[in-house]
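Appendix B, Record 12. Input sequence as logged:
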Amino acid sequence: MTASDRMPDRTATGGHMLVAHRVVFSLGSNLGDRLDNIQEAVDALFDAPGLSFVALSPVYESPAFAPPGQDIPEQGDFLNIVLVADTRLPPENLLERVLNIENSMQRVREVRWGPRTLDIDIVVFGNVTSDDPDLTLPHPRAHERAFVLVPWADIEPDVLLAGHGRVGDLAASRAAESGGPALRRRDDLSLQPPA
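Logged structural output:
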């Protein structure tokens, strides 16, 4: 069953049919009060209309990520979560909301793979695919990242990530490859779902 199979199909609005999409966000922070940064972002995502809360993963901690062969600046560990919502907003509007939230929290994009107060990625947007460089869907590296897959598998293990397989299977594979200790579930930390 795909994520879109579990959500409302359509709603009649003003004579137009709007399709509801299941959207998956990955959020991370490794500067300042990391947990507070993520909580603030979760709340801000839902401050404006257009998103309906579905699920929030447990909090995980992981070292900063860089692709093989990439040098990254010295930096602290990230806290990571996955958030699932339903929306009828267009992907571009959702991306604008995400970028506005990152900017409001002083997200700086000077160094690729550098430390950040907040990083929000749109991982999937229903069954929408896009190769737009501003918003590639599904996220082109989600299937490689344990810090996305493992929290996502905690809340939606049977969802299919287009072109890659079941999230639960991908998460198990990535967790095994990392040797385990690199990604740690932080049951001592928790977030509040949006009000």
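DSSP finds four helices and twelve strands in the chain.
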